[in-house]
Amino acid sequence: MENLNRGFTEMHCMSGHSNFVSCVCIIPPSDLYPRGLIATGGNDHNICIFTVDNPAPLYVLKGHKNTVCSLSSGKFGTLLSGSWDTTAKVWLNDRCMMTLQGHTAAIWAVKILPEQGLMLTGSADKTIKLWKAGRCERTFTGHEDCVRGLAILSEMEFLSCANDASVRRWQISGECLQVYYGHTNYIYSISVFPQCKDFVTTGEDRSLRIWKQGECAQTIRLPAQSVWCCCVLDNGDIVVGASDGIIRVFTESLERTASAEEIQAFENELSQASIDPKTGDLGDINADDLPGREHLKDPGTRDGQTRLIKDNGKVEAYQWSVSEGRWIKIGDVVGSSGATQQTSGKVLFEGKEYDYVFTIDVNESGPSYKLPYNITDDPWLTAYNFLQKNDLNPMFLDQVAKFIMDNTKGQTLVNTTAQFSDPFTGAGRYVPGSSSGSNTVPAADPFTGAGRYVPGSTSNAVASVGKADLSTGMGAYQSAAAKTENIYFPKKEAVTFDQANPTQILGKLKELNGSASEEQKLTEDDLIILEKILFAICNTSAEAPTAQQLQTLWKAVNWPEDIVFPALDILRLSIRHPTVNENFCSEKDRVQFIILLLKFLNPKGKQANQLLALRALCNCFVSQAGQKFMMQQRDEIMTQAIELKSGSNKNVHIALATLTLNYAVCLHKVNNIEGKAQCLSVISTVMEVVQDLEAIFRLLVALGTLISDDTNAVQLAKSLGVDSQIKKYASVSEPTKVSECCRFVLNLL
């Protein structure tokens, strides 16, 4: 290499995957790894993380259930991965923090946006999703085929490219600003020039295209059908990787331009390429109508324009180069290669390529199901998986397996000449005509469900709402010591809702019992029992409630939704008692108990019930049995509870913040990073909508408790942009606890 200034030399060959590598990404330098790290995703479902100077992985990230085909790194050591398993995962160092679920087909493109906590995923379900703190905020629809690539233009705009041969420019707010056409086939990759809005794309039409001011300014043809990937270096050079296994670098800089011999060799290689007319790269071709060589005497009208001529019965393709003022041969157009979908093509289904995709009708009236199959698959196993996936009767196993064998008769694995397989779909070269066979409709948002909750009328049913005193040291506010000493977090004990007015509760219960239906009416004896329970709970000296008494309470809390709230209030107070806590949260009863409480957390339900169910959940944390129960059900409870953020009742918001705080207390003890990630996501999401300062204060204490003594949690909070979210509370004047606590949290961040 005498020209070291423009050459690249191989430094290392890194290995760690057991099958093909489908994506690579650089993790920027940090204090721990000043030279940065390299992440690779593979067909073996794993992600390998390498240091720059060691050929073996530093560590391997396991968790995806299928090929990992896209990676993007963010600030503070976060990594986002996309997989054929339809999920994306957020990793911090060597741990998975969050799984983003919502796409219905393979995720082929992921990007972390510059504004913290925002992430994008592009999928074979034709949609792009924007995620904030691990929740789907928005779905972008417009592409008519699988989304293959994403590129960030600014905090507010991004680009996407797809199998529909178009590029789209989007605003984060959801609007599509522009559609760019130029490619004649799948676009696999897109990359932006530094400091401007110009970009480059590569695809299945043998070309690299350079886009300036929204127009295709230059087309560079390559001697390979599939140009899988492109990236723009900091110096503006463009690197492309193609299906011939060669990486090529293109530059505008004269001192880095290749030697005349290298350029001649590239042109020769290009002119010898054979172009299959069936791919449509050159439009419809009728060889009989083509002009001869004299056609090349006229200059082209724009850079990259192609012209076909017929010379001695052979069709040749040329492209006009403005800079050189001449037509450059880009290949011979060959006759039909017979490469149709019937003979060697693959069929796309849910973003992956298969040899066959059958349509199976189980019964006349029911829906039909798609069954994808590769010749290398085992027909019985495929049939078994198909029945499992679609919840069909296993007795169809023989029938489906026989159907597969009958319809693939004589097909054995052929050794095709395609040596390079698509790093995204794992199949050989794409043959046009096999458009995506999947008609999947995007599923309902996994977090909000289909219909957003619209706050209803506020219920005044529970007037006597007491605020729990959040910390025992609250009287010490104004003292000088409180200014310097953090009395707020990490919080060690759960916060409970203890205020009670037994006479009022019983009065309401008796009044509503009058309107209950006959079979649900409580007897006089029942009412006496409930009075006993209330008395026992509110006076610690009295004896514990018996199992029989608790049966009566269970009967009452199963009243209809419009009259149940006094019974729920008794439950909220009772659950603090160790005996009651043990009874409801034990292994045998907890399933019914959780179903009951989650039912009341429905955003469309009555506000009084939402409030009391949240408070009952908060009070479950008082003893061991309840804590264990709450931690086991954490995912379900948090996912359901966060839906109540959209309401307008501040007491519901305070209870929701307290629930989060109590989880933070437990998570601080056990140091479960996945749980902390969910909790941080909830805090970040609820902070956005809640106005009440008491709720904000409790969320701040929860946040401080979660990140105390845990550098991973601090990094995760930063990557979610929580610090910028809470800054405004540092200047709250009343109550002072809000600004004080906020400052302590900001110090940790």
Number of strands: 31
State the major sheet.
Answer: 4 strands, antiparallel
Structural class determined from secondary elements? alpha+beta
Radius of gyration: 32 Å
Helix content: 25-40%
Task: Calculate the terminal CA-CA distance, rounded to whole Å.
Answer: 48 Å
Low-confidence stretches: 1-5, 336-344, 412-483
Number of distinct helices: 19
- Identify the strand order in the major beta sheet: 1-2-3-4
Indicate the overall shape.
elongated
Percent range for β-strand residues: 15-25%
Average pLDDT rating:
84
Domain PUL: 487-748
Protein name: Phospholipase A-2-activating protein
Subcellular location: Cytoplasm; Nucleus; Synapse
WD repeats: 61-91, 100-132, 180-212
Question: Could you characterize what this model shows?
Answer:
Mean pLDDT is 84; it is low at 1-5, 336-344 and 412-483. This protein has 749 residues and is α+β, with helices and mostly antiparallel strands. It has 19 helices and 31 strands.
